TrEMBL record:
GO terms for molecular function: ATP binding. The keyword Iron-sulfur does not apply. Residues 13-248, 256-497 form the ABC transporter domain. InterPro entries: AAA+_ATPase, ABC_carbohydrate_import_ATPase, ABC_transporter-like_ATP-bd, ABC_transporter-like_CS, P-loop_NTPase. It comes from Endosaccharibacter trunci. This is Sugar ABC transporter ATP-binding protein. Keywords: ATP-binding, Cell membrane, Membrane, Nucleotide-binding, Repeat, Sugar transport, Translocase, Transport. Gene3D superfamilies: P-loop containing nucleotide triphosphate hydrolases. The keyword Zinc-finger does not apply.
Length: 500
């Protein structure tokens, strides 16, 4: 087989006519793809376009129904991921697959523990794992258990695990989805080093601004078809969006209206019991989107969890509509009108094997069963109204697991919209969500503010924070470094404060 991508030079991986169907649903329609040594090819598309299926076929997780693959000039048809790894192909999953009760070092080397004299060489394992973690900007002990690590730290452990494989092709599936700007730069430095050593990459990401920084070429899937190829990564974002969704998207961030002068929530010198943050003070007004920025470990997630009552505080106060709120009481926070969309959507936001209707009923029993009885019919009617109101692409009886990431996020948001809260907190609202669905989430956030809610947004995506917020608070190592009005908030200024 020969590639038809217009490029020259030896080919490391070649795919021709790859087709895959699950039942009657055709997911991939005859995909051609080539990747050369030391090349990074971006694989773009909306959720459901076929990116993950194509990646899983290359990595040995699925077998194609038709088509052929070649690896370094030989026929390639892996039966399982072990076959792919033996050939030098590794996959970093978007969904973390770490073992929570093993140490970081054990997770990095799981399945291939280094041996010396018939025993596990733990000293070497800790040293190598620690070196990779430090190179990625994660300063934690490799002996620490994975359980309790933030989503961003878990992602860095997954990346460190892949970097130890010695693979000649790494498939990166949304590797920066949970990472901030500084952590992303650490990752990119390692990727550039490996590229210079001849390692190839297939890079799947919804962060289009990253593509031009790190990739060499771009291929775009839509509804299982390869719809566009670009021989350079220097492609305008509107062009890529049009390729991905099949239509022009004029804007991503909605226009923001001036907020009200009424103060909804005031946080006064709040400090975490765990030490994750200390002496944080700010206010959010009705109709305001208040962004919180900072690098991994700044205390952003811990702060909003404390405001929502999920984590205890050691000192400070929260005042809602002029009245003090009892801290450390999530039920009290919800009753008073403070709700949280958590960063770990699948682990904390939805119950994956329950229906959309059941997920929407969680936390809303008092509103559905006003007479004291909760029946399937009342739950279904309640869910149907919210599904239509929030534009969830799914039926109330459908399993939450079957939904795309964007629609799962809409379900979590819809659950709390039903309560008409006073303060709506969203932690990493678009992590792992494609650009088309991301624009819809942004419109929802602007709509919440337009209804007079005080909206707090935490995001590792700096462009997201800047594009949505009226004001941005920057945290660094648990300390509040400043609050910037929209006119003064810029990438440079935020990063100056975040790294001060």
């Amino acid at each position: 087989m020969t590639p038809s991508d217009g490029q020259t030079g030896p080919v490391r991986l070649l795919l021709r006519g790859i087709r895959k169907a699950f039942g009657t649903n055709i997911v991939l329609h005859g995909i051609d793809l080539s990747i050369r040594p030391g090349e990074m090819v971006a694989l773009l598309g909306e959720n459901g376009a076929g990116k993950s299926t194509l990646s899983s076929i290359i990595a040995g997780l699925n077998r194609p129904d038709a088509g052929e693959m070649e690896w370094e000039g030989r026929a390639y048809a892996p039966d399982n991921p072990g076959d792919a790894l033996e050939n030098g192909i590794g996959l970093i999953h978007q969904e973390m697959k770490l073992l929570p009760d093993l140490s970081i070092a054990e997770n990095v080397f799981v399945g291939r523990l280094p041996m010396r004299g018939g025993r596990v060489d733990r000293a070497w394992m800790r040293e190598r794992a620690g070196a990779h973690l430090r190179a990625l900007g994660l300063d934690v002990s490799p002996d620490r258990l994975v359980r309790g690590l933030s989503v961003a730290a878990q992602q860095q452990v997954e990346i460190a695990k892949a970097l130890t494989l010695g693979a000649r092709l790494l498939i990166l599936d949304e590797p920066t989805a949970a990472l901030g700007l500084a952590e992303t730069e650490h990752l990119f430095a390692q990727v550039r080093r490996l590229k210079n050593e001849g390692v190839s990459f297939l890079y799947v990401s919804h962060r289009l601004e990253e593509i031009a920084q790190i990739c060499d070429r771009i291929v775009v899937l839509r509804d299982g078809h390869l719809v566009a190829t670009h021989d350079t990564a220097q492609v305008p974002v509107p062009v890529l969006l049009r390729d991905m969704v099949g239509r022009s998207i004029d804007r991503i961030f909605p226009s923001v209206q001036p907020p009200d002068t009424r103060e909804v929530i005031h946080v006064d010198t709040l400090s975490s019991k765990s030490g994750a943050f200390r002496d944080v003070s700010f206010s959010v007004h009705a109709g305001e989107v208040f962004g919180i920025a900072g690098i991994v470990g700044a205390g952003r997630t811990e702060l909003v969890r404390a405001i929502a009552g999920a984590d205890p505080v050691s000192s400070g106060a929260i005042v809602l509509d002029g009245e003090a709120l009892r801290t450390g009481q999530p039920d009290e926070a919800i009753r008073r009108g403070i709700v949280l969309v958590p960063e770990d959507r699948k682990g904390q936001g939805v119950v994956l094997d329950h229906s959309i209707a059941d997920n929407l009923a969680l936390g809303n029993a008092d509103r559905i069963a006003r007479s004291g009885w909760l029946t399937p019919d009342t739950v279904s009617r309640f869910a149907q109204e919210l599904v239509q109101r929030l534009g969830v692409k799914g039926r109330p009886e459908q399993s939450a697991r079957s939904l795309s990431g964007g629609n799962q996020q809409k379900v979590v948001i819809a659950r709390w919209v039903a309560r008409s809260p006073r303060v709506f907190i969203l932690d990493e609202p678009t992590r792992g969500i494609d650009m088309g669905a991301r624009a819809a989430i942004y419109d929802l956030i602007a709509g919440l503010a337009a209804q007079g809610m005080a909206v707090i947004v935490v995001s590792s995506d700096l462009e997201e924070v800047l594009g949505l917020s009226h004001r941005v608070m920057v945290l660094a190592r648990g300390r509040q470094m400043g609050v910037l009005p929209r006119a003064e908030a810029s990438n440079v200024r935020v990063m100056e404060l975040a790294t001060a």
